[in-house]
Every structure is written in structure tokens, then in C-alpha cells.
Amino acid sequence: MILGAPGAGEAETPLRAVRVWDLPTRLVHWLIAALIPFSWWSATHDHLSWHRLSGYVLLGLLAFRLIWGVVGSSTARFSQFVAGPRTVLAYARGRLGESRIGHNPLGGWSVIALLTVLALQIGLGLFAVDEDAIEAGPLSKFVSFDTGRAITHWHHEIFWVLVALIAVHLVAILVYVLRRKNLVGPMITGVARLSSSLTAPALASPTRVILAAALAASLTWFVAHGLSFKS
Amino acid sequence: MMRRTALNSIIAIGLGLSASAALASGLGGVEAAKDRQVHFKEMGKAMKTIFDQLKSGAPDQSSIKVQTALIADHAKALPSWFPPDSGPSTGVKMQALPVVWTDKAKFAEKAHNLQIAAAKLNAVAQAGNTAEFMPALKATGDACKSCHETFRQKDPD
Prior knowledge:
Chain A is mostly helical.
């Protein structure tokens, strides 16, 4: 979540348009937002081929986001937005204001929670086996039928944890709307109007985007083929 | 000594009573319901083994033959797994829907379709006919699914 709501003292500083989120981060965000409901729909309507495909794309997006969290633009990096408990508490008590660009200390942990549960959900899906063993994840060959069925059970349970986290995420966005801060706009356009006293984020080069995407795609291909180089 | 005999008699009568109570509530049906769940699971495991073998890149033909034989045999026996007293009234947790016992004609037809598909799959596998194997496997899987759509409750997991 972006900041820079004019706090005391900042009110006088002029605002300027700043690119807060780069294109890859926004694309990954919106594709994940679209594919989670699609995955749910395809699973509940017996379109398991689509469900698997959707899972593979999500795996690729997740892999890219994790790589991007290390080598991407400054606002996408974990080192920039994962704050310690004291900072989070201070922010939650309103002591920090909105003095930085990118995820605030609380929002940063929301990102970590969402990515962790998404990773868990995708990971379980890779080993899942349906009741008839006709539909199965690409890594199910490494587990027994019973283990695969137990994993499928957890794949169904964890989905609701993911839904709960998404609900928290949406409520947080509404809370910021009430505080007159639009978080959705910048996630679409990438641009926010912020105090000119704040340093603009360092954007990663297109070469990095391509390399990170290629690495994420290769990893996904490898996993989708059951950790095998054979096609 | 007397006391002991009396006690034994009481135990014997007690056992007899509980056994007849169990029979009245359909012990046979309960057994049938539980057995059939074991058998269906065996078919699921067989199916998984076949798919795992196919995915391995170097499928073990002899293992696949064992599985297709199991599926074909189970398919043949399948209609006998659903005696009239083995439905939801047994109290056994089951996904078999009451319609199994009310729309017998349709259920028998679906079971028959599976028997044909599974027999073909097994014949193809035993003959080592690799070209025909995948279509036969798909036909068997479709026969499973087609019956489950109507007669089995959706996965509660």
C-alpha cells in the first residue's frame, strides 16, 4: 500500500506523479487475482485440465514474484517492505505516518502471508490425486494414493485460508478508501501522486524482467513435467 | 463352579442377543458397504499405479497388466457390491447416493458400460497393444466418471 498521505508537515509539499509499481509486479498481481477465482471455478465444475493449467500459470507467476522480490524494482523487493515487529507495531499505532513509498509495514506482511499461503496451496495441488486417480497433479507420482488423497483434502481446506486472507486484503483496501487513499488506482496504472519529498523507487531494467521471467518459466516447466527434463 | 457356568450362560445369551440385534439392523449390509469402499479404493489405487507407470517414461508392462486385470475383475463384481440393505440406512458414512437403489436400471447400465470398457482395457494390456492402450484407458476412466456423476456424492474432502 502506498503512501504518502500528507501527514502533518507534509501538507505543504507539492505532489508529483511517481511510478510506484512496475509493470511486471502489476501484471503478476492482476493475473493472480484473476486466476485464483478461475482455479476455484474450474475445480468445482470438473474442468480439471483447466484447473491444472491455471495452477501451472499461478506457479509461474509465484516463482516470478519470488525472484522479483530479490532482484526486481525497489518497491517489489522483500528487503524493502518486510519490517520487524517494532516497526509494524509503531505503524499500526499510527506513529510512523505514511512516510515511505511502496508497501507499508503492515501491508508488507499481508503480501508475505498471501504469497506463503498461495505457495502452500499450489504446492499441495502438485501432489493432489482425485478420488478416481484419473486426475492428478504432476508430482503425485511421488506419493501413494492415500497420501495424495490426504493432500487433496488439505488442498481444499487451505483454499479457505487463502480466501480469508484475500478478504482481509480487500477490507484493508476499503479502510484506506475511507482514509481517502486510493490503493487500487496505482496498482492499475502504476502511478501515484506523492509528496515530492519522497525518493522515487528504482525501477528494474527490461533485461531483468526477461531473465527473471525466463527463470520462472523454466522452473514451472520442470515442475509441470514431474521434475523431469523429458517432455 | 455353578457361578462360573451361570456367568458363561449369561455371556453366551448376551452375545447371542447382540448378534441378532446386529443382524436385524443389517450386519450384512454394513459389511457390504464397507467392503465395497475397500474395493473402490483398490480400483483408485490401480488407476493411479497405471498413470504413474505411464508418466515414468519407462512403464512396467507387467505391473500395468496386474492393475488392468484387477480393474476388470472388480468391474465384473461391482453390481454385487450394492445389495439392497447396504444403502444409507446402514449408517455407514458413504458417498453412494440413494439413487443407486432406486434407479436400478440406469445403475446396471452404467456398471455394464464399465465392464465392457475395463474388459477391453485388460485385453489390450495383456496383448501388449500399446497403440490401443491409451484410448482404452480413457474409455475406462470415462465410464467411471460417467457413473459417479449420477450415483456418487461429490468429493466431500
